[in-house]
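As described in the Methods, two query proteins were run sequentially through the folding procedure within a single session, without resetting any intermediate state between them. The first query and its resulting C-alpha cells are shown here.
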Amino acid sequence: MNLLVICKASTQIGFGHLIRSRTFVENAIEGNMNLDITLCIIGDSSLKLLLKNPAITFLFYEDENQILLTKSYDAIIFDTINFNKSVFDKIRFNAKKIISLSPVFNLMPFVDICFNRTQYWAEDIEKLTLKKYGGFEYALIQRNCNRIHSIIYKYGLEKRYFNIAISMGGGDAANKTLEVIKQIKNIIEPFTFWIMLGEGYSHSFDEIVNEIRKVKKHEIILAKTNHSMWNVLSNTSLLITTSGITSYEAAYAGLPTITFYDYDNQWFLLKELVDTKLTINGGKFSDNSINNLRNILTDLYHDRSVLYDMHKRSKKQFDNEAANRIINIIKEEVFKT
C-alpha cells in the first residue's frame, strides 16, 4: 500500500501535527512490511532537526502551493488544521481515499475518513457523513514515550520537593511558559519545576531567567528538549500542559497532568480525559485560570494520593497500537470490493 502523509508545522502553529505524523509513520512502517509511506512536511528547513529517522522518506516544502505530485497513492493523509483548497483540489484525485488524522480540518467535508484520539467530536464535524473513528485506541503515542513503573512513580511522589514539569508546546507562540512561571513563584509549598522548552521556542530566554531569579522557594530547571523530552518527564510527578497530544501521551505513560485549553471549541479534545479522571482541567488559559493553578498545586502537595490514583487509572485506558489500527482500516477501505 502506497501512502502520502501531509502535515504542516511552524513556531506559530506549533509542532504537534508534525510529531503526530512522524509517530504515525514510524509506528506504521515498523509493523507493516508492504507499506510505502512518504511524509511531506510544509514548513521551514529547521524542522529537519525533528526528523532523523533514515527509514522514512521525507519531502519538504516551505509553502503548500509548491506541492507537485507526479504519482498516485492509495491514500493521502492530512494532518493539519488548514490547507489551501485550490491545492487540495489539484492533488485529491491522486489518491483513492482522503484521510485526516486531525479532528479539526477546514476541508473536512471533502475527507473520506477521519481518526480522532477521543470519542468526542466538534459539532460541525459530528454532522458530516464521512467515516469517523474516535477513542483512546486511536491516540498515536511517540515511541520514546514509555510507561512509568508504579514503584518509581510513587518514590518520586513522596519526595518533599516533588518534581513538576511545565510544557506549553514545542513553539509556545503565546509564551504561556513565562505566564506560568510568574504564578508559581508565589506558591509557599516547595517544588522542583522542570521548564520544558521545545526546539521551536523563539522567545527571549532572558525574560524567563529574569523571572526565575525572583523565585526563592523552589528549584527551577530549564530544559531544552526534543527526542529526550520523555526521558525528563518520566522522572516527574505532574505535568502542566496544554490540550495537545502531550496530554494523551502523558496519560499513556501514567503521568498525571493539569491541562489548559485556548478556545471553547477545543474543549471536546480534553473532555474524555477529564471525564475519566486522567487529567485535571486547568480551564481556558487566562489570568484567572493561571491564578487558580496555585491553589490546585497547593492542594495536590498536601494530598498526593490524587496523583497516584490518576497514575494507576491511566494504565488501563491506553495501548500503543493506534497506527496499526489506522493502517488496517485504511487497507479495508482502499481494497474493499
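Immediately afterward, the second query was submitted; its sequence and C-alpha cells are:
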Amino acid sequence: MNVALIPFDTAAPSDGSGVRRALRRLPLRDVLQLAVVAKVEGTATLNDVSRELASERIGAELQRAGSPALRRRSLQILSVGCEGITTPGGWLIASLKAPAGRGFGLALGHARSAPVAMHDRATRKHIGSAATAVRAAMRRAGLDRKAVELVLIKSPIRLAGGGPHVGSTAASRGAAALGAALALGDIYESDLRDGSLCTDWRLHGFRAMAFSGTETDCCEALVMGNRRGGDPLLRVERAVLSDILDAAPLAALAAGAKAIFFKAGIGRSGAVRGARTTVLTSELPPDKQLRAAASGVVGAILGTTRAFISGGAEHQAPPGACLAAVIRAAD
C-alpha cells in the first residue's frame, strides 16, 4: 500500500478551491480509499451550517475530479471550530494501489456503520455501531488491534427522543470513543453498563479521537497504523499527554511531522495541575476554550498553525489527559 498525504487550506466553509488543487495532485486512478480530514471554521453549535456547507462543497469537488465512484470511496471527517491560531483546512489522505511490498510503514482504511436510529443514539447500540465501523476499517487497512495507532471517528448526535443525552455532543463523542476502545480491545464488553456513557470515566481508550456531527446518521471511522506492506515513507505515531500543559510527549512527535492531530481534554473539576480554571464554569463553551488553548500549545511546540485540533476527550483518554498524533516522514 502507498499513501498520499496532501494538505490544503480553506478561505471559508464553502471554499472548495484548496480541495480542488489538492485533488489535482492525487493520482485518482490509483485511489483505493480517500479520506478528507479537515477543520472548518464556524460556531460549532447544533444549528451551525458550516459543516454542511463544507461537506457539500467537498462532495462536489470529489465528483468533479473523479466520478460518483470516487465519492463513494471517500470519507469526510470534518470538525468545526478553529478558535485560537488554527488555520482552517486539512489533508487528503489516500490509500493507493501499489505492488505488494515488504516495507514497514503507514496503512489506512475507512468504513461506515449502518445508520444509527435516533432512539438508539447515545446508547449501547450506538457504542456497538462505532465498534462495527472501526473493525471494518481495520480489515480494509489490513491492521490488527495491536498495529492500530490512531482512529478518527465521526458520530451522530441524539437530537430527539428524550433522555439525558439529547443534544449532547459529549455523549456522541463518548459513545464513539467507547466503541473504538471496544473494537481495539482497550476495554471489554463486560466493562460496559447501560449507564456507563459519560458517567464511568474509568472506561476509556487512548487511540481514538472522536467527533460529533449533525450531518451524519452513522459512525464513520478512519483507522491508521503501521504494518508490513504499508507505505515505507510514512509513519503514524501517537502520544498521551497527562494534561494540556504536558509538552514533552508532544515535542517528541515533532520530527518530520506532516499532519498533526490533537484532542484536548480537561479533568471533571476543571483544574489543571491542581490550579482552578474557569474552562467549565465561564460563559464560553469548554470545547471552544480547549481548542483555543491547544492551538497555542501545539503552535508553540511544533511551530505551525496547521493542525487538526478538537476539544472534548470523553472516554478517549484518562480524565484530564489529551491525545496527540502525527503522520510523519519515516526515518
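The domain at 104-232 is CATH 3.30.1330.180 (60s Ribosomal Protein L30; Chain: A;). We note this only descriptively and draw no conclusion about the first query from it.
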